[in-house]
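Exercise 3.2. Students should predict the tertiary structure of the chain below and write it as structure tokens, then compare their answer with the key that follows.

Predict this chain's 3D structure.
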Amino acid sequence: MGVLDILKRKTPLEKATKDLREPYAQPEYRRAAMDKLFEMGTDEAYTALLQRFTFNASGQIADEAEKLELVERLVEVGGPAVEATKRFIASEKKIAFPIRALIRMLPKAEALTYLCDVLKRYEPLDHRSTEAKLNLIVSISESIESKDAVIFVPYLQDHSDDVQFQAIGALERAGNPETRLAICDVCCSDAHAARIQRRAAQALSDLGWSVKERFEDFTPDLKSDYVIGKKGLLAKKQSAAG
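Answer key:
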């Protein structure tokens, strides 16, 4: 065996990582690689395992099953895999499955604090982090206390309509009155798409929050759909409701 052959020889970690990342291989092939990495049980091995979440394998059902299985196995490992999972969530885009794992690996409050810290690192105008922001907002909104929901307010101004839409939903779910004016601002600005403005108006209506002092500034389209009802609440016009 020559020197070049020795230099080219992959370590067990490198070989298992390569096998795990074969999108067109049979599921059993990737599972065997997964088993080897779990047997290694090192931080490097867990980092490699998390790369399985970065691509879709051929066959949607098999792909989903593998990712769910990996979540379960990471949860079983627990503590030793936490740091690798945190690093992945903080640096990658496809983080929905790792978030599921982390929420079960840590106490709820600790996991939520970490996810909030990661979200805060992403600027609303950061075009590269749209997918990560969407996953973080949805996951955080399922557990956050109402008083802490102001974390979502900056993302009402996100460059992505989808992020704005999820931020409105998160604020509606939290129901913190301190965020009322921020949602009203969406209804007053031409910088937002019509569907985002309609979603914001619907949230204000469903929450039963007064818009009396801001309604005159609403966009013409919204004012054609809504009127001010009792106590300054939004009420949809009959023609718009129909």
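Discussion points: The chain has a mean pLDDT of 94. The beta strands are 226-228, 234-236.
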